[in-house]
Design goal:
Radius of gyration of chain A: 22 Å
Radius of gyration of chain B: 13 Å
Oligomer: heterodimer
Number of domains of chain B: 1
CATH architecture of chain B: 3-Layer(aba) Sandwich
CATH topology of the largest domain in chain A: Rossmann fold
Number of helices of chain A: 19
Structural class of chain B: alpha+beta
Largest sheet of chain B: 4 strands, mixed
Strand order of the largest sheet of chain B: 2-1-3-4
Structural class of chain A: alpha/beta
CATH superfamily of chain B: Glutaredoxin
Number of strands of chain B: 4
Number of domains of chain A: 3
CATH superfamily of the largest domain in chain A: NADH-ubiquinone oxidoreductase 51kDa subunit
CATH architecture of the largest domain in chain A: 3-Layer(aba) Sandwich
Strand order of the largest sheet of chain A: 6-5-9-7-8
Helix content of chain B: 25-40%
Shape of chain B: globular
Order of helices and strands of chain A: HHHHEHHEHEHEHHHEEHEEHEHHHHHH
CATH topology of chain B: Glutaredoxin
CATH class of chain B: Alpha Beta
Strand content of chain A: 5-15%
Chain lengths: ~425, ~110
Amino acid sequence: MNILLPEKRSNQRETLQECIGRGGYLAFRSSFQSEPSQLVAAVVASGLQGRGGAAFPAGRKWQLLRGSPFERCLVVNGGEDEPGSRKDRFLMDYFPHLVLEGALLSARAICASQVFFYINEKFECSQGSLKRALQEAEDERLIDRASLRIVIVNAPSAYVAGEDTALLEVLEGKPPIPRKKPPYPVEYGYEGRPTLIHNVETIANIPFIIREGAESYRRIGTPASPGTMLFYLDEEFSRPGIYELPFGTPLRFLVEDLGGGLSHGRSFRAILPGGPSTAFLPASALSLRMEHKAFQENGSSLGCGNLRLIPSDACMVKVTLEIAEFFARESCGKCPQCRMETNTFAVALRKILSGAANLGILEQIERLAAFSRGKGDCSLIHMAAAPVLSALKLFKTDFECHLNSGTCERCARHDRVTTAGN
Amino acid sequence: MNLEDGTRTLILVCQNVDCKSKGAGELMRRLEEAFKNRPEVEVRSYMCFGTCQQAPNVVLYPQRHWYSEVKLSDLSDIIEGIQQGKPVERICNKVDSGARELIYALLDAGIY
């Protein structure tokens, strides 16, 4: 059963009338018969967890914020700079009224006076779609923008700009540099006001929870991870696309039944389950059920649901180096340990790839990650380590081959094919 | 460059944001100039030692002399110390020993 998307999807942006036709804005209209505290209670009871990657209980944030006597703000985070991630953009492009209703309900629940839609500057279509939705909702007298200030803000297209406190800096007209926490945004956010920040998909869950009730929501998914999640399969799959599935669905169903596996019947050796900040899993992890706990117990995470399969003919040193270079590039440079760690990972992996280091380097990479753990103002330092450490653990032979001979079986085969092709 | 016999020196000068903002670029230029005709000494930029609070940082390897908060006025002593094989004690090994040991281990593993 779906919570966010209609069972039958078209390739068109959902209009206001179509959204209303499937229950849209019912929850918002009826919310005026409830106290804001009842809306908060419903979200707490639903067990909704943030969909941005950390899976933090959304209701807990709402409770923390409700306790504050100050004027409050809501930010809908549509920065979505995780490489390959598409789902927030997809929701904003095609289902803007679902996102808008979720934002209106959230704002009402926490008594916010200001709502920011923080949307990646490159997502012109998403910005246009939400602007149109705002106008349509205003024309239908669903919203009164005189009593609730709603603005769309350009989010810089940089990985770190999606981090909660870097986002606050941008809203205040500054560069996207994360702040030291605590204080957390729910205590001290935009211009010092308590600020609730949720990513787009999290917000899109709110209308269902308020309309159908927390109990109905909890009937979908698993007790520990209620509801559904959007998963994005990239162009490497036979049937790429965005799929909505209840938590607890076997990963195999998503990869094989829906995605059709890798295109051209290629096999794979590793799974990167939730974007580049998650740890690799072996191909055998297809038997896992997609819920946070199961993935955590296996050393990884569902992240933002951007699933990638690493083909059997890929060298894991090369794949890991690409990710390490991404984090070295995207580290904002504020925290010394993060600069050092992300740069060193990239340099070390380049050395390994070319065989220009000794086997001791593998142990030192692990030591570096352990030394850096918990340091830095945001979690990028931890994100950069997860793929490197898991690749070392699961595919050590690839690293050892490169260190011993400057290449590996897969790279050698690739080089032979390339040479023959020339 | 063979560093194993200890008669050669790699001078690593951090060129990341903090060190650079405190003059690491000029330090590097002057060190390169001082050792341009000395093949046993190589001056090389380093991406980051992670001890930016005590910038600029210069590390001599394999001697394991870690100089922090280096000023232009320290350079003559550093150059003389390299020639005599002695550290400049007043600016040497002032940073956290954990950070130092980590970086030395990375250098030992060939990451430089």
